[in-house]
Amino acid sequence: MTDGPTHSHWDAVPELDPGMQAGMVRALRDALQATLIETHISWVLVAGGQAYKFKKAMSTAFLDQSTRELRLRACKEELRLNRRLAPELYESVVAVTGSTSAPLLGGSGPVIDHAVRMRSFDQDGLWERRAEQGTLTAADVDSLVALLVEFHERCERVDPASLFGTSAAVRHTVLQNLQELEQAGLAELLTTEDRDRLRTWEEEAFAKAHHRIDERRTRGHVRECHGDLHLGNVTLFEGRTTVFDGIEFSPALRWTDVMADLAFMAMDLQAHGLSPLANRLLNAYVEASGDHDGLPVLDYLLVHRALVRAKVALLRARQQGQRDEPAAMAAARRYLGLALQLTAAPAPQLIITHGCSGSGKSTVTQRLLEELGAVRLRSDVERRRLEHLADVARYSDAANEATYARLVLLAERLLKDGHPVILDATFLRSASRQVAWQLAKKLQVPFAILDFVNGAELDLMRRRLIERAARGGDASEADIAVLEDQLKRIEPLQAEEMVVVRPAWPQR
Fold first, then answer.
1. Where would a tag sit more exposed on the chain, N or C end, judged by fewer CB atoms within 10 A?
2. Residue 385 is part of a domain; what is its CATH number?
3. Domain boundary pick from 120, 151, 171
4. What mean pLDDT do residues 493-500 have?
5. In the chain, count of helices (H) and strands (E)?
6. Crossing angle of helices 167-184/298-318, nearest 10°?
7. Strands 234-237 and 240-243: what pairing?
8. Residues 113 and 140 in one domain
9. Which range has the worst mean pLDDT, 20-24, 284-288, 461-465?
10. Based on the number of CB atoms within 10 Å of its own CB, is 156 exposed (0-12), middle (13-18) or buried (19 or more)?
11. What is the pLDDT of residues 244-267, one digit of tens each?
12. What is the pTM (predicted TM-score) of this model?
């Protein structure tokens, strides 16, 4: 939807240069008595419950919005793309008429520019501000996961005939970003040794990941995503987590593996000192989507996204007239530091649990995965993914055997890729624990058992199961009958069963 005159009125209207456009925006700011927010590629005027976003008249290696027609096209794309996630925010494309010294939003005169009209929102709801204030919560992260899983599922899949999302295209973007960083002044922020380390890591990481990148594209994981999912583009609007400002100016940057969206947000949480929430995000998404195969490409994407944010911050610092140059330079240093940190060699380990349903395994392992950055595989979740067990009782011997086989298979893949893994299952039988132990020995990774049998209170476990069933929505379907059967089947830990860690028992 476009308000006001269209390009048929353009013939006699000269193109705006950056200075003329900046003057137009300032004149509108004054006329509307608006607040002006500036980014490296846009201006936003906020007034009277509305926000008007203008594309800067500029051209760079990664975008071209230097002409009125290109900016109109970008405005229309922004409206289309962002209505997928925030239809309540994005209203229309509005024409600017009049002159650069006396511009009007709408009107009947010749069109000099266009803007995206949105509803404004309280800037204190932005996740970036909430992260800085320490008010971003686990519930916020969980709400974003639910939104993303549903969004990615309905996103259009890439045309196999296109080049978007191929390993070659992904690497081209990464290398181009590194080149633009160099041009923007990377040498001022990183030593030659660190810059060489980044490039060496990129070459080695890509060599490991490129086959999987292409395999995932073939399987349909490259879709028309958001493309710019950092903390500054998520807000709390009317009580709901709302994602906005997706990439419109570059199809190559939004037609990506769904893991690229996830990597952007996880990286930004880490950059803001919120690694536990980043780990929660990754685990919750993979658990809900079942996309474990996306994790092997994650490290490459995490570093790439950190470099993207470093470049944006550096470009912003370099723009003339920016009053927040010190803050932008500090942000560039922070993201570059994180990129280097993310290139460190992984430390895989295998942890399993031992305890009945309701003994607190999932509560404790949730805290543990957030602290360690581990991938948790829950038997109750993976059991549901085994379609061939549809006609078999959920907790029968056959179901248990198939579930444990799946857990060990997934764990082996993840451990080989360098991820710490937690297997959240009862592991009541010594034989099942031995299989996990043998896997750890084969891969030469540390192994530990979290014991939830000794110290667990039977009455507390029963109460938890009853309350969980009443709440609904939990992956576990274990009830009192299942618990009673488990109690009969417990095979105690043997002295030789490696390291046993007894966690602090969660009480409520």
1. C
2. 3.40.50.300
3. 120
4. 76
5. 17, 16
6. 30
7. antiparallel
8. no
9. 461-465
10. exposed
11. 999 999 999 999 999 999 999 999
12. 0.91
